[in-house]
Amino acid sequence: MYKIKHAEFLAPNIKKFIIEAPKIAQKRRAGQFVIIRVKDGGERIPLTIADSSLEDNTITIIVQGVGKTTKELNSLSSGDFIQDVVGPLGKPSHIEHFGTAVSIGGGVGTAIAYPIAVALKQAGNHTISIVGGRSKEFVILEDELKKVCDEVYPTTDDGSYGFHGFVTQKLKELIDSGTKVDFVLAIGPIPMMKAVAETTRPYGIKTVVSLNPIMVDGTGMCGGCRATVDNKTVFVCVDGPEFDAHKVDFSLLEQRNRTYRTDEQLALEKHECRMNNLH
Amino acid sequence: MEEMSKKDRMKIPRQKMPEQDSFERSSNFDEVNLGFTEELARMEALRCIQCPKPSCTTGCPVGVKIRDFIELVSKGDYLAAAAKIKEDNALPAVCGRVCPQEEQCESVCILGKKGESVGIGRLERFVADYERNTSGIRTPEVKAKTGKKVAIVGSGPAGLSCAGDLIQMGHDVTVFEALHEIGGVLVYGIPQFRLPKEIVKAEVEALTKLGVDFQTNSIIGFTDTVDELFSNGYDAVFIAVGAGLPYFLNIPGENLNGVYSSNEFLTRVNLMKAYKFPEYDTPVFNCKDKNVAVFGGGNTAMDAVRTAKRLGAKKAYIIYRRSEVELPARKEEVHHAKQEGVEFLVLENPIEFIGENGWLKQVKLQKMELGEPDASGRRRPVAVEGSEHLMDIDMAVVAIGNGSNPIIQKTTPDIEYNKRGNIVADDITMKTSKKGVFAGGDIVTGGATVILAMGAGRKAAKAIDSYLSNKEIW
Ligand SMILES: Cc1cc2nc3c(=O)[nH]c(=O)nc-3n(C[C@H](O)[C@H](O)[C@H](O)COP(=O)(O)OP(=O)(O)OC[C@H]3O[C@@H](n4cnc5c(N)ncnc54)[C@H](O)[C@@H]3O)c2cc1C
Ligand code: FES
Fold first, then answer.
1. Tell me: domain A2-89, CATH 2.30.29.30, correct?
2. Which residues of B touch A (CB under 8 A)?
3. What is the second-level CATH architecture of the domain B149-244+403-473?
4. How confident is the model over A108-136, as pLDDT tens digits?
C-alpha cells in the first residue's frame, strides 16, 4: 500500500497526488512513469512521474479523470492509500544541450512535460514552454514552469487566457518570428502530438513525443503497448515512452487506444451509477 | 485389498479422472479435473507393481521417489505419501496438475509397455490436495538462523522452491516480484480451470508462515539493480525471472485491434480477472459469438484457446504449422480442448492479418507440408505453393513462445548470457559467471516446464547454502 501524502485539484478534473514511494523517488528520472493499481480488482494504468522529492521520499503524479480508474483515483484524498505503485518504468528522456528547446504540454500532458522541461533547462538549454488548454482553467503548472523556463506561453483554444489558438500555432509563430528552435518536445492528446510533428517536419526540427498506449505489466512481458515507429514494432513501456515524432504512426496508436472504448464506457457508467447511489 | 496378488493388481484398469462435463465446463472457469477420491486413488495405487528398480523415478526430472509414495497411498497413509514426494518436489499440487507426465514418469512406467501406465500425476495431485485439505500444508522445521540474507528475483516455481528450501536452512529470504501478485506463470499464465489460484496461494501462505518475505511491485533492474541488492546487504542472489518476452509472428497486420500475444490475453484474463469484467476493472476483447484463432500448439496455445471458448467464442481454432503429432502441448490439454469444441487446423501457417477500420477481420493462411527433420528433430514444415486462402476471424492470439526479457541483462551486463539472452548457469550449482549470483528456471533454459524450474530452484538453494557456509563455489 502506498500512502497519499497530499492531494489537490489543479484544474477541473485534474488532480495532483504526492505519494510516499521512497524507492521510486530515489531512482526516477525525467520521462519515466509508474504503473498504478488503485485497489484490489483494479486495472493497471501507467502514469508519468511529474516530480519527486528525496527529502520526503515522495513522487508526484498528475491525473486527469477520464475513465473509471482515473476517476476513482481522483476521488482519493490526502491520507488515503493506493494499492500498488510500481516503477520507475520506461527509458528516461534523452536530455542534452540542444540550444533552444521548446517543451509543449497539452492539458494534463503539461504534467508529463514539466519534469522534462526542468531537465532541459538544467542541461543548459534556452527553454521555452508552451502550455495549452481548452480554456484558462485547463492551463496547469504555469507558475511552476515560469520558475524554471526562460519563456512560458500559455495558450487556450477559446482565447480565455494567453495566446488564442492551438499550441501548434504558437509554435509556428515562434519559429517564423526567427527563434532558432533546435529541439521540440510535445506531450498531450494524440491529435496535438500529431499536429506538432507536422508543424516541425518541414523545418527538420528534432521533435520528440511521449506515447500513451494501453499497458498491462509495463515490463515488456505482454506486448499490449506495441506501437509502430519507423515502420517497426516497438514496446512503448520498455523501448519508450519517448520516440521521434516524425516516425511515429499516430493513427495506429489512436486506433489501438480505442480497443476497449465500449468496455470503458460500460465500466464508467457502472461506476458513476454506484457513486450517485452513494450520494 | 493389500492381499491382492500382483497378477490381480495388474488387471485393475487405469482409473479415470473425474472431470466436469465438457459442455458445462466450456463456459465456466472452474477446474476441469475434479481429482481422485480416496477410493480411486487407492485403486490406482494398487496398480503399481512396485518394481525393484523403478524406471518412473528416472523419468522424473527431479527424481521423485514415485514407487515409495505410491506404496504409501495404497496403504492409505496419504500424509506420509505427501511427505515422501516433498523430499524431491516442493510443489506437488501444482506439478500433479501441469507436468507433462506422459513424456516423463508415465512414459517409462513398465505397465505402459503393454497397457496403460500408472496414473502417477493423478496420484501426486491427490496426495498433495489431501494434505492441503486435511492437515494443511505441513510446515517443516526451520534450522537456526544463519544471519545470511538471500534475494530471490521472480516468484515463479523456480523462485518459490528456492525460497522454501533456503528458509528451512535458516537463511533470511526476500522474494522480489515485478507484478502485484506472487506466483509467476502459475498466476498470470496458467488459467484457473487448469490450476486454481487458491492452490498457488496456499503454497505462498505456507512460505510466508515460514518467514519468507515477499516484496511485490519490485522490478529488479529498475527498483534495485542486482548490484544494489548486494550493497543492501544480501549475501547471494538467485535470478528466476522466467522467459517473459512474447514473440510475435512478424507478419503484416499484427498490430490490428484484436491481435494479442498469449501473455497479454492470459494476463488480462487470469491475473487481472477480465473474465469477471466489469466486476473487475480490466477488460479483454469480447469473444462472445466471435471467431477466435490461436496460433501455436503448446500448452500456452491450449490455455488461450480454451480461455477464448469459455469467454463465449462461437468458434475457437488452434492453427498450427506442423501436424497433430508434433503438437508440443500436454496430451490431456489437447484432449480436453477437443472435448470442449476447439477445432484444430494443422499444417497451416498465417502470413497476413487483414483488418477493417483498424479491427482484425481475416487471416491469410498458407498450407504447409512436412519436409526433412530440422534441428529439433521434428519434420520441418514447408509452405505449399499457391495454397494461400482467407479465413474470417475476429480475434487472434499469438502463442508461439517467449524469448528472455532483457531487463536484467541490460542492468547487469557482467553476467554471462547466451546469444538468445538466456543466463548461462552451471547445471549442478546454477551459479552464473558473477560471484554470488545464481540463476534458474526459464531464464536459463528458455520456456520449459514447471518441474524443471522447480528443480533448478532447489539445486540453487543447495548450492547457495554451501556458498553461504564458505564453501568454494567460484
Ligand atoms: C500459459 C502457459 C502455460 C504453461 N503450461 C505449462 C504446463 O502445463 N506444464 C508445465 O510444466 N509448464 C507449463 N508452462 C511453462 C511453465 O509455466 C514455466 O516453465 C515456469 O513457470 C517457469 O518458471 P520460472 O520460475 O522460471 O519463471 P516464471 O513462472 O515465469 O516466473 C518468473 C517471475 O519473475 C517475475 N519477474 C520477471 N522479471 C523480473 C524482475 N526484473 N524483477 C522481479 N521479478 C521479475 C515475473 O513477473 C514472474 O512472476 C506454461 C507456461 C505458460 C506461459
Ligand atoms: S505493457 Fe506489457 S509489454 Fe508493455
1. no
2. 178-180, 216-219, 222-224, 244-246, 248, 250, 254-255, 257-258, 260-261, 263-264, 267-268, 272-273, 277-283, 285-286, 358, 405-407
3. 3-Layer(bba) Sandwich (3.50)
4. 888 888 989 999 999 999 999 999 999 99
Q: Is the domain defined by B6-134 classed in CATH 1.10.10.10?
A: no
C-alpha cell at A139: 492551463
Which bound ligand lies closest to the C-alpha atom of A239? 2
Give the pLDDT confidence score for residue A278 in this predicted structure: 57
Decide whether any atom of ligand 1 lies within 6 Å of the B253 Cβ: no
Query: Where do we find the cell 496426495?
Result: B127
Distance B135 CA to ligand 1 centre (A): 29
Mean pLDDT throughout B405-410?
93
Residue span(s) of chain B under CATH 1.10.1060.10 come to 6-134
Which residues lie below 8 Å from residue B114, measured CB to CB, with a gap of 6+? none
Q: Which residues of B287-298 are buried (b: 16+ CB within 10 A; e: fewer)?
A: beebbbbbbbbb
Task: Report how far ligand 1's centroid is from the alpha carbon of B144 (Å).
Answer: 31
Q: What is the pLDDT of residues B83-94, one digit of tens each?
A: 999 888 888 999
A27·B261 Cβ contact <8 A: no
The ranges of chain A annotated as CATH 3.40.50.80 are 100-257
CA pair distance A211, A256, nearest whole angstrom:
12
HEC sequence for B335-396? HHHHHCCCEEEECEEEEEEEEECCEEEEEEEEEEEEEEECCCCCEEEEECCCCCEEEECCEE
Tell me where in chain B the CATH 3.50.50.60 domain(s) lie.
149-244+403-473, 248-400
Q: What is the DSSP letter of A248?
A: B
- Which CATH number fits the domain B248-400, given the four candidates 3.50.50.60, 3.40.50.300, 3.40.720.10, 3.40.50.10230? 3.50.50.60
pLDDT for residue B421 is more than 90 = yes
Residues in chain A within 8 Å Cβ distance of B405: 219-221
Chain A, nearest residue to B177 by Cα: A86
CATH number of A100-257: 3.40.50.80
Q: Which residues, other chains included, contact B174 with Cβ-Cβ below 8 Å and sequence gap of 6+? A: B149, B150, B151, B152, B212, B213, B214, B215, B234
ipTM score for this prediction = 0.93
- B247, B227, B252, B246: which is closest to B237 by C-alpha? B227
Residue B35 CA, distance from chain mean position: 19
